[in-house]
């Protein structure tokens, strides 16, 4: 066996969540579980707990570019996962980074709100993401509230939002955790007109970091070469299991259990 064989590296551009449920920590854990190596570039620091977010600070252009460049100068990147942006300037910074990685699978999670509902960026950040980053993405993964903001359809159905958003991207996965159906309907829309609905049992809890877990898992599956539709199905199933097995370390939402309980046993 070649001990120097490396796992595929996934460039994660995300915010830091100090309670470790969402953001960069979610990306790292979910990518380890896909046998990928996370290379985390921090876009923002947040102050939050499992209940809600109270503040955030966006890193400046030079610091984010320098973090990304350090990775790009050092190792090949097999996929990109984008999470919290926080500002209009960060949208442009990320465009600059993505343009350095043409033909690399790119999963765009349009993060605008924390699990508790607090804002992680103004809606204008979402509109800039829609026009500048969605066209570069392999797939965009909003939940229904995020899809409604991006489509500017406050009461739109997933199908109505998708009709608007598919004008800006090639593949769109609208997750249904916030929907009102008895089962969760996760809907994949493709620019070629095909659609796929993946249903799963609705779990009783509220979770902190489910969207990050899904998007980074999907980036990991694409990094290892899985085809898009089966990668989406795999990532949804994995994420559902992390929610079923979630932990309740704090006073608020549950945190997905992304690594097996016996991870450290020799
Ligand atoms: N990124 C960061 C840094 C966050 O703090 C959060 C939520 O708190 C998110 C992303 C989005 O979380 P979720 O995966 O629950 O949508």
What is the strand tally? Answer: 9
**Stretches where pLDDT falls below 50 for ≥5 residues?**
none
Shape: globular
Largest sheet: 6 strands, mixed
Helical stretch tally? 8
Q: Provide the spatial order of strands within the biggest beta sheet.
A: 3-2-1-4-5-6
Order of helices and strands: EHEEHEHEHEHHEEEHH
Give helix % range.
25-40%
**Average predicted local confidence, pLDDT:** 95
Strand content: 15-25%
Structural class: alpha/beta
Rounded to an integer in angstroms, the radius of gyration calculated over CA atoms is 17 Å
| CA(first)-CA(last) distance | 20 Å
- What hetero molecules are in the model? pyridoxal-5'-phosphate
Features:
35% helix; 266 residues; alpha/beta; binds pyridoxal-5'-phosphate
Brief write-up:
The protein contains eight helices and nine strands.
Provide the fold topology:
Blueprint: E1 9-16, H1 23-33, E2 37-48, E3 53-58, H2 61-72, E4 79-82, H3 88-98, E5 106-108, H4 123-133, E6 139-140, H5 144-151, H6 158-165, E7 171-174, E8 184-190, E9 195-200, H7 210-223, H8 228-244
Helix pairs in contact: 1-7, 2-3, 3-4, 5-6, 7-8
């Amino acid at each position: 066996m070649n001990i120097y064989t490396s796992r595929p590296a996934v460039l994660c551009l995300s915010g830091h969540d100090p309670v470790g449920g969402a953001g960069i920590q979610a990306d790292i854990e979910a990518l380890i579980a896909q046998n990928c190596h996370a290379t985390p570039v921090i876009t923002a620091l947040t102050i939050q707990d499992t209940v809600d977010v109270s503040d955030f600070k966006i890193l400046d252009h030079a610091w984010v570019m320098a973090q990304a460049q350090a990775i790009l100068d050092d190792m090949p990147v097999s996929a990109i996962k984008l999470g919290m942006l926080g500002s209009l300037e960060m949208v442009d910074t990320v465009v600059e980074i993505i343009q350095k990685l043409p033909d690399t699978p790119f999963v765009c999670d349009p993060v605008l709100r924390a699990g508790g509902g607090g804002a992680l960026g103004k809606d204008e950040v979402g509109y800039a993401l829609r026009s500048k980053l969605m066209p570069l993405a392999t797939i965009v993964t909003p939940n229904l509230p995020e899809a409604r903001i991006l489509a500017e359809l406050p009461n739109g159905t997933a199908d109505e939002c998708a009709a608007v958003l598919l004008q800006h991207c090639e593949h769109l996965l609208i997750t249904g955790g916030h929907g009102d159906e008895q089962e969760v309907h996760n809907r994949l829309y493709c620019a070629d007109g095909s659609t796929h609905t993946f249903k799963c049992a609705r779990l009783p809890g509220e979770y902190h970091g489910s969207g990050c877990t899904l998007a980074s898992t999907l980036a990991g599956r694409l990094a290892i070469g899985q085809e898009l539709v089966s990668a989406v199905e795999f990532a949804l199933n994995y994420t559902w299991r992390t929610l079923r097995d979630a932990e309740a370390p704090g006073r608020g939402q549950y945190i997905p259990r992304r690594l097996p309980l016996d991870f450290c046993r020799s």
